[in-house]
Amino acid sequence: MVDRTGQRVWEVLVRTRFRGTRGILTGVTLLLACEMSFAQSVEYSSALPPQDAVMSALAQSPQVQAAQERLMMASAQKQRTEAGDYEWTLGVTGQRRTDAIGATFSEQSYELSRGMRWFGKGSIDRQLGSQTVSVGERTFGDAWHEAARSMLAGWFEWLRAADTARQLGAQRKLLEEQLQRVQSRVRAGDAPRVEQSLAQTEVDRANAAQLAAELHVQAAALQLKSSFPNLPLVASPELEAPPSPSGSDEEWTRRILGDNHEIALAEGQHEQSKLRARRARLNRIPDPTVGLRYSNNLDGNDRLLGVVVSVPIGGARRSAEAAVALRESNIAGQHARATRLKVEGEAQRAILTMRSNYTKWQRLSNVAAQSEAGASAVARGYELGEFSITDLVTARRQAFDAQLDASRAQMDALEAASRLRLDAHEIWSVEETPQE
């Protein structure tokens, strides 16, 4: 649902796009991205980029821009379909007549004719034109949603990489502090020099891991920027806890299936194919060409005014075209059915992923907390000489790995929750069929 600003933008879009004014439509689409806001039942996640920046980046993405062009093309196709294939034809004939005794006369004839759509073909063409625009709108909505999905996946890929690099940097700093304490013990004669070598090895390993992580951050950023160059890559310093799963599986499935661009597009294409099949069936009866003819003969002494009617004789081709259109309609119907089943399966998997990732994050968070407490205890014991450097290194490594696993599980849970909200049109959505 859009607010008043978004509704006003859509009204301008409706009134301008059917006039063929390319600049106005482009400007309105960008205005839509910048000004539209959405009423949401839950708070916008801090793990996501700012919503106004998202809407602007989506509107300017090549995928959405191409869909906008298809929408404009659908408007032109509507006008072409409604106009039909027939045009007025003007014929002019000039001749000279010579009779048996040698007298000559100037003669002219004029004919104005046009093909006529009979048997409700014009009405079907108008319905086809409107359905073509409807399919174009649904194509635009589906392209927007797919672009939003791509952005969400790319954003969390970059966010994971950035978080991993940050944690590796923190680990490297901790290991450097640990190395300094070991060096102090070695200088004081409280520890053998081999412990300093082991601590230095851990620092070197952390440096290499952090370098690899920073390269991954850059690669993920480049990948995201290649599709959405205007999206600012600024993450929240503190990620929120993933939201606990609310609502039943049936409720989520109903919400996703009830407002789904992919299903709407497939069903719209099926309706379009059914109209085409009806049109092809009617076209088995040929349309007549009706015209007026005027002749001026014998130097104006003989004038004729008549009506001309010509009707093609239909053959096997028209019946074959009707049969092809009917099969295409049946195929489109099966595609719509398959699309609904596919989307339903994807929705159920997304719900399952959200719930399982949330449970996984909870358990790994507990493991991380326990590992950190154990590592801190080993560190204190090492200072007192109760543990060796090997014990300390092992404890620190296990604690870090547990924390990294918990952070990745947190990212997975946040992404799964955001993906579900995206598919339910709670975030980053654009209204497909505006109301005037």
The number of helical segments is 10
Shape: elongated
Helix content: 55-70%
- Within CATH, the superfamily of the domain at 40-86 and 131-283 and 341-423 carries the name Outer membrane efflux proteins (OEP)
**Distance N terminus to C terminus?**
14 Å
The beta-strand count equals 4
The major beta sheet can be summarized as: 4 strands, antiparallel
- What is the overall pLDDT average? 85
CATH topology of the domain at 40-86 and 131-283 and 341-423: Outer membrane efflux proteins (OEP)
**Low-confidence segments, ≥5 residues, pLDDT <50?**
1-41, 432-436
Radius of gyration: 36 Å
Describe this protein's structure.
The chain is 68% helix and 9% strand. By secondary structure, the protein is an alpha+beta fold. It has a domain at 40-86 and 131-283 and 341-423: Outer membrane efflux proteins (OEP) (Up-down Bundle), CATH 1.20.1600. A 4-stranded antiparallel beta sheet has the order 1-2-3-4, with no helix packed on it. β1 (89-98) and β2 form a beta hairpin. α1 (4-17) runs antiparallel to α2 (22-35) and α5 (121-187) packs antiparallel against α10 (389-423). The longest helix has 68 residues, at 316-383. The relative contact order is 0.13.
